[in-house]
Amino acid sequence: MLETINLSKTFKEKKAVDEIDIYLDDGESVGLLGPNGAGKSTTISMISSLLKPTSGDVKLNGKSTIKDPSEIRKVLGVVPQEIALYEELSAYENLHFFGKIYKVKKGFLENRIQEVLDMVGLKDRQNELVKTFSGGMKRRVNIAAALLHHPKVLILDEPTVGIDPQSRNHILETVRKLNEDHGTTILYTSHYMEEVEQLCDRVYIMDHGKVVASGSKDELLSILSSEDTIQVQLSKSSDNLLEAIKAMKPVRRVDETSDGIRIISKKDSSILNNLVHAAEKEGIQITHFQLEVPSLEDVFLHLTGKSLRD
To answer: Where in the cell (predicted)?
Structure first.
């Protein structure tokens, strides 16, 4: 339904997005992940026709949207990362204004405003000024505004950042219902891996402007099928032990945690024996160790060298 082809954007000397190819099938929910500066927001701006690519194309049902963005604007709703509302207006007045911008027919607008307010759980607060709302409530009004024109595709750029748990749960449930019950195609970015795992059929991982991996959850987890993740608790910390572990052949990554270390290594039966011997040499006790099942967060860390919230 919607795809990018060799999509790129350069700002002066910096290539923010570097020839990426992504696609969304009709009715699919797709996650777009990446550390800060990976190029996610720039990609979203190009897909939504707010930013012209340096090269490449965005196609809707096989037709380019670069020269004529009118068709994609009819079917696309965007929930931006920043709140985009008029604080001195009520929730209802904001939606009435945006409904006119979207050219929703006058005879349908009133009913649609009530429908989207009901979707986001704010029907009983519609006449209150937006400036009196919590951050989570403002984000819910933002989502309502993006839904006024019955979009077939909805892009949400980190819609749950810095909000209360109640609003977060309401937003996640709203997105799930839009996708499962209404067939809305979703492109979702987040700094919370559990949200993407809960909502998305497939995931793209970006880093330094490129797509470094894509696929279903199982397909991405298979990237680490040849590795083990070991969580080790120690009686005390030691730089010498840390360096000794890093020098072990199977070890690919070592990170310090609050009470020990986390090791990612190639599957190797000797790693635990070597770990015990290295700890004994430094006079350190291993108080607990656990072999962990790889998570999407582990895959992300493996591919980008950063946690999702970095």
So the answer is: Cell membrane
